[in-house]
Structures are given as C-alpha cells and as structure tokens.
Design brief:
Length: about 170
C-alpha cells in the first residue's frame, strides 16, 4: 500500500499549476534538451493521474520545483556518496527541491539497451519516483509500485502502478 509523509503534506488546492526549473546541470554530461524531455515525460505520468499540471520554466525564481545534479556535499546536510548508494533525493511538499547524484552512470532518453547494463541507472525511472516524493508520497509496500523503496540497477520502471495512482488520487 502507498504512504504519505508524516502529517500528509501536499501542494495546496489553489496550486494546481506547478512550474519546475532544471537549475544545476554543470555536474552532468547529459545534454539540456535530453534532460528537458526526460523530466517532461516523468512529470506527465503524474499529471495524467491527477488534475495537477506541470510546466518547465527557465526562471529559477518562478519555479515551485527545482531540479539539479550535485556531487558530494551540496549544502542541505544530505551529501551524495558517489556511484550507487543514494541516487537522488527530493523533499516533501512544499519544499520542491529535487537533487540527483551527478556521480551516477545515468542513462537518459530511453536508451533501454544501455539501461539494462549493470551499474547504470535509468534517469526517467528515478525521476518518476522522486516526483512522487515531491508531491507528497512516501514509500509503498507494493513491489511493482513506482514508490517501492528499491529498484534493481539496470531496471526501467516509468509507469505508475494502480497503487501509485490510488495514492496520488487520495491526496489530490
Ligand atoms: N533515494 C531515497 C529515495 O528517494 C531517499 C530516501 C530514503 C527517502 N528514505 C526516504 C526519500 C524516505 C523519502 C522518504 O527513496 S534513493 C529509488 C528506488 C532512490 C531509490 O537514491 O535511494 C529510486 C531514488 F526506489 F529505486 F530504490 C530513486 Cl527510484
Ligand atoms: Ca550515489
Ligand atoms: Zn540534496
Ligand atoms: Zn523514495
């Protein structure tokens, strides 16, 4: 079953149009347009299940959600740890910060053949999971769910499971 963060924080009902900015990309070699595509597809999964709408903005000051790649300590007390281990983290509503470990062997743009190699991590799969956290979902006990707390490396899981849909629809 799905879960929420303690106290059930969520984006308030008058905030149905959320803007995201991809703000810190100098630590990754993935090109900008690929990042835009991957994150747009990941947000679209959650938009399809709710009345939330997501749009990318170039202006960080306009953004509800900020997405960036970092290595090691990066100022929030949750340092990244190099390849594998922690891949990414996102804060609960309405913080909006979503950080990715730049040290991962990220695969982006649906390169499924590379995505199934050992040690590589599918960016879109991690993005769909972290957006769930940004919107207020905790971890699910259903192994097929996007919000299940573990994923095998080299796995691609980008579509919401019934449990994820029920969780997000009970919140929004
Ligand atoms: N990052 C953890 C995660 O997002 C961070 C975390 C640990 C966390 N405990 C939490 C976040 C409790 C919110 C609430 O779950 S991770 C996966 C998965 C990670 C793991 O790097 O371990 C994905 C990030 F599910 F595949 F294991 C993305 Cl998809
Ligand atoms: Ca790591
Ligand atoms: Zn961080
Ligand atoms: Zn998680």
């Amino acid at each position: 079953l799905y879960a929420y963060f303690p106290g059930g924080p969520r984006w308030p009902p008058f905030r149905r149009d959320l803007k995201y900015a991809i703000t810190a990309t100098s630590a990754t070699s993935i090109d900008r347009s690929t990042l835009s595509d991957v994150f747009a597809r990941a947000f679209a999964q959650w938009a399809a299940a709710t009345n939330l709408r997501f749009a990318e903005t170039a202006s960080e000051s306009d953004a509800d959600i900020t997405i960036g790649f970092y290595t090691g300590s990066h100022g929030d007390g949750e340092p990244f740890d190099g390849p594998l281990g922690t891949l990414a983290h996102a804060f609960s509503p309405t913080d909006g910060r979503f950080h990715l470990d730049a040290a991962e062997a990220w695969v982006a743009g649906g390169d499924v053949s590379r995505a199934s190699s050992p040690g590589v991590v599918d960016l879109e799969s991690v993005a769909v999971h972290e957006i769930g956290h940004l919107l207020g979902l905790g971890h699910s006990s259903v192994p097929e769910a996007i919000m299940y707390p573990t994923i095998r490396t080299g796995t691609r899981k980008v579509e919401l499971e019934a449990d994820d849909v029920q969780g997000i629809q009970s919140l929004y």
